[in-house]
Amino acid sequence: MLDSLLALGGLVLLRDSVEWEGRSLLKALVKKSALWLVYHDFFRDPLNWSKTGEALPGGPLGALRAMCKRTDLGPVTIALDSLSWLLLHLPCATLCQTLHAVSYQDSCPPGDGSPVGKVHVLGLLHEELHGPGPMGALSSLAQTEVTLGGTMGQASARILCRRPQQHPTDQTQWFSILPDFSLHLQEGPSKEFQPQSDPHIPLVDPMAHLTFNLHLSKKEREARDSLTLPFQFSSEKQEALLRPRPSQATSHIFYEPDAYDDLDQEDPDDDLDI
Amino acid sequence: MFPELNNLLNTTPDRAEQGKLTLLCDAKTDGSFLVHHFLSFYLKANCKVCFVALIQSFSHYNIVGQKLGVNLTMARERGQLVFLEGLKSAVDVFFQAQEKPHPLQFLREASAGNLKPLFEFVRVALKPVDSGAAGWTYPVLLVDDLSVLLSLGLGAVAVLDFIHYCRATLCWELKGNVVVLVHDSGDVEDEENDILLNGLSHQSHLILRAEGLATGFCRDVHGQLRILWRRPSQSTSQRDQSLTYQYKIQDRSVSFFAKGMSPAVL
User: Fold this and answer.
1) How far is A155 from chain B (nearest CA, A)?
2) Contact flag B234-A19 (C-beta cutoff 8 Å)
3) According to its UniProt record, in which pathway does this protein act (chain B) (predicted)?
4) A22 in Cβ contact with A30 (< 8 Å)
5) What is the strand order of the sheet A183-186 is part of?
6) Mean pLDDT in chain A?
């Protein structure tokens, strides 16, 4: 599944974290899909601080917008390293609109009716840098989301794929990137790396050396089992309630007043000062 | 420099890696011992060092440096060390007329500024000299620290842009190194600092994180150091990606030991 990510069109989000970086996977996917690579270098001077005149007009956003107006018809993959940089420097709405315009070009063919080739946009996004709002917006634009993770030194990619009019699919693929940036798919972390419980620690019975008795004798156990709980609504209790016995109809309070008691019904607490 | 830390990082001044960004961060403790380590490390490696010191005075770093075996005054005099003393020169922004923008020019600006003048200062300071007489190995930028720039009114994106440019020029073009310190606010909700810390973490090759102990202050164990190497996911990598050690800072050195193995406890 990981190696056929770019077969579908649209936006593919590669979400990585500090612990599991995604740049090498981005490079591996670019290497896999690209026959001819055009490299726009915005690394050295993205904000045009050097003012040498070499910078492309409009900066990274201008370059991205220029790709919306391309005239060649072949399939193209646009890899963005990184979307996080764009999201920190541009308003989220502007970026989303540009990404939508770039990735859905094949739905709006040019006037002469000839079909435009498929556009794949592969964007690297650093999860910890953005709040839930921008992440959710980009997520909803994306056809496929690949979230990087891993365990015990082995990297994994969780691929969530949304195809139109089909159920979304969710798969996890273990992989590694070889030094020449080719993608190596793997089965999963091998069993020998899983932590084993130490067989040398003997299990201790906590009930062994107590100073009080926690065990029940046979008679005590039988008595306990035959006890009915006070609030359990058994059939006997139901009978007793349905047919109240007259001797137990009312309850009595027996009260012997003291010598000093003064039962004044109008002032029982004796605190009215009239 | 601390020899034990060199062993943990598997490096020496003679064969240090070049073209790397190292991120130092501290949480609930003082990570400045790492700054002193790298300052003396790169001076001993015969590198040209530009130190943007915004927190302490020159004499403070000099005193600690002498305990670690480097003389900052002499290094500055022979041109190996370019020292921007933030505490002193910040005042110059207001009281001295400058022909060209001062490195800390952003202090004068009312609106959100950028660090382009500071980058120009660093770029000029570490530009390779054509005469070649000095023969320094490679340039190194050290910043102590970046969190204070956020307190002075800059946005996290402006600081990230500055580090991006430093990385492009120093790490990629000149094959030098950049070492920066950022404080982790931890429990206190500080969005700008979190963006700065996470953004730098993604750009770094090596992250050293000094943390206070979860159980509180201890006389014999001053904290714990987490070392994270950010390497591509390679199947044949034998080294661990992340290590954790506890440490104790002494007068002239720092001793490291595995968790729970402090000599005071054993």
Assistant:
1) 6
2) no
3) tRNA modification; 5-methoxycarbonylmethyl-2-thiouridine-tRNA biosynthesis
4) no
5) A76-80, A119-126, A10-16, A144-151, A154-161, A169-177, A183-186
6) 79
The residue with tokens 């946005």 is B155
Chain B residues contacting A via beta carbons under 8 Å: 114, 116, 119, 157, 160-161, 164-165, 168-169, 172-173, 194-195, 198-199, 201-202, 207, 228, 230, 232-235, 237, 240-242
- Averages of pLDDT over each 10 residues, chain B, 266 residues: 88 89 93 94 94 94 94 93 90 77 81 86 87 77 93 91 94 93 84 92 93 87 90 52 88 87 75
How far, CA to CA in Å, does A219 sit from each of A210, A227, A229, A230?
22, 13, 18, 21
Residue B44's nearest CA partner among B137, B121, B124, B118 is: B137
Instruction: Please provide the DSSP assignment of chain B as one string.
Output: --HHHHHHHT--GGG--SS-EEEEEEESS--HHHHHHHHHHHHHTT-EEEEEE-SS-HHHHHHHHHHTT--HHHHHHTTSEEEEEHHHHHHHHHHS--SS--TTGGGG-SS----HHHHHHHHHHTSPPTT--S----EEEEEE-SHHHHHTT--HHHHHHHHHHHIIIIIIIS--EEEEEEE--TTS--HHHHHHHHHHHHH-SEEEEEE--TT---SS--EEEEEEE-----TT--S-SEEEEEEEE-SS-EEEE-TT--TTT-
A5 pLDDT above the threshold of 70: yes
CB contact (8 A) between residue A177 and residue B233: yes
| Predicted-complex ipTM score | 0.83
Q: Are B215 and B240 spatial neighbours (Cβ–Cβ below 8 Å)?
A: no
Per-residue pLDDT, averaged over A151-164, amounts to: 84
Amino acid at B258: A
Interface test with A, best of B114, B189, B192, B202 (most A CBs within 10 A): B202
